[in-house]
Amino acid sequence: MHDSPRDRAAGKALGFARGGSQRAAFAMPSAPKGKTPLRLHRRFLSRSLRNNRDIVVWLPPGYGLARRRHPVVYFQDGQNIFDPATAFLGHAWHAGDRAAGLIRAHRIVAPIMVGIYNTGFNRMNEYAPTPAEFAGWDGEQCRSTGDAKRYAKFVVTELKPFIDAHYLTLPGPRHTAVVGSSMGGLVSLYFALWHPRVFGHVVAMSPSLWWDNRTVFQEFSRLRKKPDVRLWLDMGTAEPGWEAIRLFRDTLISKGWKEGDDLAYREVPGAEHAEHAWAARIGDVLEWLLPLKAPPPRR
Question: Which residue range is the domain that position 225 belongs to?
Answer without folding.
Answer: 5-70+84-289
